UniProtKB/TrEMBL annotation:
Function: Catalyzes the conversion of acetate into acetyl-CoA (AcCoA), an essential intermediate at the junction of anabolic and catabolic pathways. AcsA undergoes a two-step reaction. In the first half reaction, AcsA combines acetate with ATP to form acetyl-adenylate (AcAMP) intermediate. In the second half reaction, it can then transfer the acetyl group from AcAMP to the sulfhydryl group of CoA, forming the product AcCoA.
Entry protein name: Acetyl-coenzyme A synthetase
Gene3D superfamilies found in the cross-reference section: 3.30.300.30, N-terminal domain of ligase-like
Pfam family of the protein (one): AMP-binding
Record: residues binding CoA: R190, G191, G192, K193, T310, S528
SUPFAM superfamilies: Acetyl-CoA synthetase-like
The gene coding this protein: acs
UniProt keyword list: Acetylation, ATP-binding, Ligase, Magnesium, Metal-binding, Nucleotide-binding
Segments forming domain AMP-dependent synthetase/ligase: 87-473
Domain Acetyl-coenzyme A synthetase N-terminal: 25-80
Organism of provenance: Pelomonas cellulosilytica
EC code: 6.2.1.1
Record-linked InterPro entries: Ac_CoA_lig, ACAS_N, AMP-bd_C, AMP-bd_C_sf, AMP-binding_CS, AMP-dep_synth/lig_dom, ANL_N_sf
Length: 653
């Protein structure tokens, strides 16, 4: 790491941050080491308002099904809204919503509480109650946040499905969750275009494929033409209009499932990651406070979509739990031009900006080709802190972000975490950590991240290994919905001594002990910060039964998207070349978009008469990875059944 620049926090940062300097960090780590449960109990009492205080902190009697604060009762929406209004902050701006076309709506805490309460009452009037699952398929909108909070208010468990997923993906999720209601919009507005949502819902629910689902509640975003199913479809504005703005919160046990969020694993269908109410809220609030150093006068902007975990924790829950003010953006970073982010930071005087490396890399490219959208043309002096999430950030992108967006003065928190972890796990703290580009540095205080070998033994710094978390933590995944065995197998494999398996490889610097994530160790890809299983994409390809005989999917590095999806396909007809191959490749991409969503479209498709297999019939994936990268194959191919196909696979379409 010695060749990289390092950036120590300024004295002002050390003096003013919530966690002050290395001494402040060390004191917290020591507190957690001395009395682990006591540490989390203290924070849970400080950050959360409990209706019934908890007396038990951690119950590990049924490990790895851990319980936190189990006899305490709370309501997440009460913690995000009512308590701020009760404290006299009802007039404070909670959300600054900027639409695709640039129009802005602000919503105060008092307004937000009214709207959440009205929708909560409407849901109750439809018979939706504590424990029911509600799927949310919404664009980035105030209504999306309101829908999530309204579910939390009545104790219904929400499952948000990203608006880019296909009808088939939506159907799978509605079915797996056994959802009773679905909240969607007529359309979404992105990059100057209206895109369907309700039409995809109609397709997902066709042929009575989701019998548990009774209500489809539609938010009118664009007023575009949509089909209507009488008796099932309901306008959101009609349902809420007559409802009272008072809705007493449903007090739930700390372990009550706040939400399910489906994410990809290395095998099978996406899994419904189940999160709790109390432990999850604690970490959402605590990490927002310490990692982002959120203060009362900050304007916080997380650019993630509420369809991903980052949007859950750092839009819907963390900043609101602390009574913060945040920006919610409907559009895309490149519309009307690639200066949109910088223009919005300037316009709203954002102080904290949290985005993904993919976005940064694509905006670097845009600024290189078009001077006018370079951040130097905008007044970004309001910024005091930057963040990165979702994938490793390469040092060059880090340095550009630091110099051109942060003006050289804003620390960057490179936050490593996952859907399963609920919030930040390994991250710098801005008033503490000397930053090294490309490293997520050290564990958040209380998080026992470590690097071990295949048998769970610690490996020395400087030597790579498997990233684990040794002790349970409050915001951890509770189970995979409906599949506790898969939960155990995926995250607590027997050979790892009861440690949580993150699924990433990592290495710690020999001198500093800083962590660098080296990438997934399973068959999960990270494309533009979106997580996808290679098996899922393979299944989607082979489901094109009229064309595809066999498919294998691997990732390869990509300058902009981090990883790119590369598919190797054997057709049921002779191997195509030239224009015919191009046309079939397009057909296959469209098929994958229909099965999963456009984000899963393979970038490269390579056709072969067969796939490279060992004589025992195993697909040689390592070899495919080399081919995908365009490397000359140096591996031993003597076990290859049919070496000639390597040449065929050299051509990508
Ligand atoms: O591989 C790691 C990568 O993203 C995975 C988690 O993806 P997901 O559950 O979709 O959540 C993304 C947003 C939290 C991890 O297993 N990842 C996430 N953050 C980083 C990262 N890799 C390197 N550095 C990060 N900061």
């Amino acid at each position: 790491m010695s060749t990289l620049n390092t950036y120590a926090p300024s004295p002002a940062w050390v003096a003013n941050a919530h966690v002050k300097g290395e001494a402040g960090y060390a004191a917290l780590v020591a507190e957690a080491e001395k009395d682990y449960a006591g540490y989390w109990a203290r924070l849970a009492r400080e950050l959360i308002t409990w209706q019934t205080p908890f007396t038990k902190t951690l119950n590990d009697s049924d490990a790895p099904f851990f319980k936190w604060f189990e006899d305490g009762k709370l309501n997440v929406s009460y913690n995000c809204l009512d308590r701020h209004v009760e404290a006299g902050k009802g007039g404070k701006t909670a959300l600054i919503f900027e639409a695709d076309d640039g129009s802005v709506t602000t919503v105060t805490y008092a307004d937000l509480l009214d709207r959440v309460s009205q929708l909560a009452n409407a849901l109750k009037a439809r018979g939706i109650k504590k424990g029911d699952r509600v799927v949310i398929y919404m664009p980035m909108s105030v209504e999306g946040v309101v829908a999530m909070q309204a579910c939390a208010r009545i104790g219904a468990t929400h499952s948000v499905v990203f608006g880019g997923f296909s009808a088939q993906s939506l159907r799978d999720r509605v079915q797996d969750a056994g959802a009773v209601a679905l909240i969607c919009a007529d359309e979404q507005q992105r990059g100057g275009k209206s895109l369907p949502l309700k039409a995809i819902v109609d397709e997902a629910l066709a042929d009575n494929s989701c019998p548990t689902l009774k209500d489809v509640i539609v938010y009118k975003r664009t007023g575009g033409k949509i089909a209507w199913v009488e008796g099932r479809d309901l306008w959101l504005h009609e349902l809420t209009a007559a409802q009272s703005t008072v809705c007493p919160p449903e007090w739930v046990e700390a372990e009550h499932p706040l939400f399910l969020l489906y994410t990809s694993g290395s095998t099978g269908k996406p899994k419904g990651v189940q999160h709790s109410s109390g432990g999850y809220l604690l970490h959402a609030a605590l990490t927002t406070k310490w990692t982002f150093d959120l203060k009362d006068d900050d304007i916080f902007w997380c650019t993630a979509d509420i369809g991903w975990v980052t949007g859950h924790t750092y839009i819907t829950y963390g900043p609101l739990a602390l009574g913060g003010t945040e920006i919610v953006f409907e559009g895309v970073p490149t519309y009307p031009d690639a200066g949109r982010f910088w223009q919005m930071i300037q316009k709203h005087k954002a102080t904290i900006f949290y985005t993904a490396p993919t976005a940064i890399r694509s905006l670097i490219k845009a600024a290189e080709t078009n001077e006018a959208v370079h951040p130097k043309n905008y007044d970004l002096s309001s910024l005091r802190l930057l963040g990165s999430v979702g994938e490793p950030i390469n040092p060059a992108a880090w340095e550009w972000y630091h110099a051109n967006v942060g003006g050289g003065r804003c620390p960057i928190v490179d936050t490593f975490w996952q859907t399963e972890t609920g919030g930040h796990m390994i991250t710098p703290l801005p008033g503490v950590t000397t930053l090294v580009p490309g490293s997520c540095t050290l564990p958040f205080p209380g998080i026992t991240a470590a690097i071990v070998d295949e048998t769970g033994n610690d490996v020395p710094n400087g030597q790579g290994g498997i990233l684990v978390v040794k002790k349970p933590w409050p915001s951890m995944i509770r189970t995979i919905y409906g599949d506790p065995e898969r939960f155990k197998k995926s995250y607590y494999p027997a050979e790892l001594k009861g440690y949580y398996l993150a699924g990433d490889g990592a290495i710690r610097d020999a001198e500093t002990g800083y962590f660098t994530i080296t990438g997934r160790i399973d068959d999960v890809l990270n494309v533009s910060g979106h997580r996808m299983g290679t098996m899922e994409i393979e299944s989607a390809l082979v489901s094109c039964t009229e064309l595809v005989a066999e498919a294998a999917v691997v990732g390869r590095p990509d300058d902009t998207t981090g990883e790119a999806i590369c598919a190797f396909v054997v057709l049921k007809r002779p191997r195509p070349t030239g224009d015919e191959a191009k046309a079939i490749a397009k057909q296959l991409r469209d098929h994958v978009a229909k099965e999963i969503g456009p984000i899963a479209k393979p970038k490269d498709i390579r056709f072969g008469d067969n796939l490279p297999k060992t004589r025992s019939g195993k697909i040689m994936r390592r070899l495919l990875r080399s081919v995908a990268k365009g490397e000359s194959v140096t591996q031993d191919t003597s076990t290859l059944e049919n070496p000639a196909i390597l040449e065929q696979l050299g051509q990508a379409y």
